[in-house]
Amino acid sequence: MIYVLGGLVFSGSAIAAEATSHGVHNIGTELPVWTALPFAGILLSIALCPLLTPHFWHNNFGKISAFWALLFAVPFLWTYSNVAIYHILHIYLIDYIPFIILLWGLFTIAGGIVVRGSLKGTPAVNTVMLLIGTILASCVGTTGAAMVMIRPVLRANKDRLKKTHIVCFFIFLVANIGGSLTPLGDPPLFLGFLHNVPFFWVTTGLLPHMLTASGILLVMFYIIDTLHYRKEKIPVNAGDVEEKIPFKIEGIINFVFLAGVVMLVLMSGYWKPGYLMISGVHLGYQGILRDLGIITMGVLSLVFTSKVLREANDFSWFPIMEVAKLFAGIFMTIIPALAILKAGNAGAMSGLVSIVKESYHYFWVTGALSSFLDNAPTYLTFFNLAIGKLGMTEAMIPAALAAKAATANPEFIKYLTAISAGAVFMGANTYIGNAPNFMVKSIAEEAGINMPSFFGYMIKYSIPILMPVFILVTLIFF
């Protein structure tokens, strides 16, 4: 059968077989590498279009995402029929929908929490606020923590002359590295949780790496901020008396809803009541209940939070709509890459499988791609590469990660630790490495801060500051 994709044609074997009782067909051994071109296309669009054609991108990113998704989906469905339906349903029902629901829930609930107060942006105060945001990120997600903390940080530093470095370190810590300790913290870790990685393994597995990286960065920030602070002479107008606003947190009811989300995610990881079968896809009842519960928590937040509080946070639905549309395309086009990688040495990416051998390879390759693409699908890609390389199934993962058990697989533990750290940490290398990065940049620019360009951010901040930290993490742990 002739398989056509974006003007390229190859002669492939006709697949007439139906999906098995589990809806599984090993297409990864048959698909050529270039069937992942739509995946590369959508990720390059996300990276380049906002820089080259910002107005066009802003108005048409959903259409561009749909274009790349259909460019893969139509010939895929034509060629593989019911098997293609299974793979599409599987990635949307098991990965995309829970992923977006969790992001929406955390984004909505965090948008109702307002931190007020007349804080003075001294180096000590700024460091404490970054520390709080870093800790908060693993509890409410990097998106939630960034949205809760960025405006208090900006208000505290409104009289500072140099504050670009404050926002950049905020992106490093709160929008990325801080989300290392739970599946709630960052989307890649949540995807791992959905694929049988135990909830608390993330905490114990990445705690030393997170403490090392964040500790070094907080010390560096305090030193850099102190140097800037001592050089500044902020003019004071004696006739201008500013009203002192006591420190307080409003919208506290939302912490109840955040706790509800945490409990729902924990429940879905440990309670296994059975499953619903949809076209061969096993959809666990616990997952359905978790997602409905998170939606309920978000709706309750909207009902019980004053609109005034959301207005104080400049809350809008655009960021989450953008993420939902773009990731709908990403999850469709990532299907062939995941299938090929799962095939291991039998797939078309056997060369990559053979090259990526050591844990530090996984750390840097996953991290490098997470810097320029997106850390969630990158994590999922190398997660499947590790599984395929070791001949494992997802059902084996909990036992393989039980460090003190006879079933433990030290090699897989090292690989998964490196993949997780690379995806979460190195999302901070560029503005596009993680969803909150661009959101924080936009909010800072609206507040009048002159943020560096895409490459300026890398040259002035991420490369000289983050790269030495990541090299040190590699030497210590990988």
Could you characterize what this model shows?
By secondary structure, the chain is mainly α. It contains 18 helices and six strands. It has helices spanning 37-52, 54-110, 123-156, 164-173, 187-194, 199-231, 253-270, 285-304, 307-312, 318-333, 335-342, 350-355, 359-372, 375-390, 397-400, 410-425, 435-446, 454-477, and strands spanning 2-5, 8-11, 114-116, 248-250, 275-278, 281-284. It has a two-stranded antiparallel sheet with strand order 1-2. A two-stranded antiparallel ribbon has the order 3-4. A two-stranded antiparallel ribbon has the order 5-6. A hairpin with a 2-residue loop joins strand 5 (275-278) and strand 6 (281-284). Helix 1 (37-52) packs across helix 2 (54-110) and helix 3 crosses helix 4 (164-173). The protein starts with a strand and ends with a helix. Residues 1-23 and 236-240 have low confidence and may be disordered.
Question: Keywords, please?
Answer:
single chain; 478 residues; mainly alpha; two-stranded antiparallel ribbon; two-stranded antiparallel sheet; 6 strands; globular
What is this structure, in a nutshell?
With 478 residues, the protein is mostly helical. 67% of the residues lie in helices and 5% in strands. The protein is built from 18 helices and six strands.
Side by side, the strands of the main sheet go 1-2
Q: Could you tell me the number of beta strands? A: 6
Count the helices. How many?
A: 18
Structural class: mainly alpha
What is the CA–CA distance across the termini?
A: 46 Å
In angstroms, what is the radius of gyration?
Answer: 23 Å
Estimated helix fraction: 55-70%
